[in-house]
Amino acid sequence: MPRPLLFLAPLAALTLSGCVASTAAKIVTAPVRVGAKAVDIATTSQSEADENRGRAMRKRDEKIRKLEKKYDRALKACNRGETAACSEANQISGEIVRLRAER
Questions:
Q1: Does residue 2 register a pLDDT over 70?
Q2: Residue from 56, 59, 67, 75 nearest 96 by CA
Q3: Tens digits of residue pLDDT in 38-75
Q4: Confidence (pLDDT) at 41
């Protein structure tokens, strides 16, 4: 065998073994990386939970405001003698109490 090839053969083996080791390491750690990503996707961080809770509170407060306006209209109609408005005002009042209790 010519002398340059004898020198290049071990060098090539060392270089290729690095590629193989790197590829093998990626293959071995792939399930761990995929699992970690799945856990990250499946769980909710504290900041995300806070944002969701704040969004739900704002929605509930807006619904209470709308129901209060509707209640005031029904109560005025009830005071004018409309009996159907009295039962509606009573039902709306119960809904407002229920929503306020959720806090």
A1: no
A2: 67
A3: 766 777 788 888 999 999 999 999 999 999 999 999 99
A4: 72
Among 41, 97, 45, which residue's Cα sits nearest to residue 67? 97
Amino acid letter, 1: M
Angle, nearest 10°, between helix axes 83-101 and 46-79?
160
CA pair distance 4, 7, nearest whole angstrom: 5
| Integer Rg of the chain from CA | 35
Q: What is the DSSP letter of 2?
A: -
- Whether 100 and 61 have beta carbons less than 8 Å apart is answered as no
- Give the model confidence (pLDDT) of 3-31 as tens digits: 655 555 665 555 655 555 566 666 767 77
Cα torsion angle, 84, 85, 89, 91, sign:
positive
Q: How many whole angstroms separate alpha carbon 71 and alpha carbon 44?
A: 38
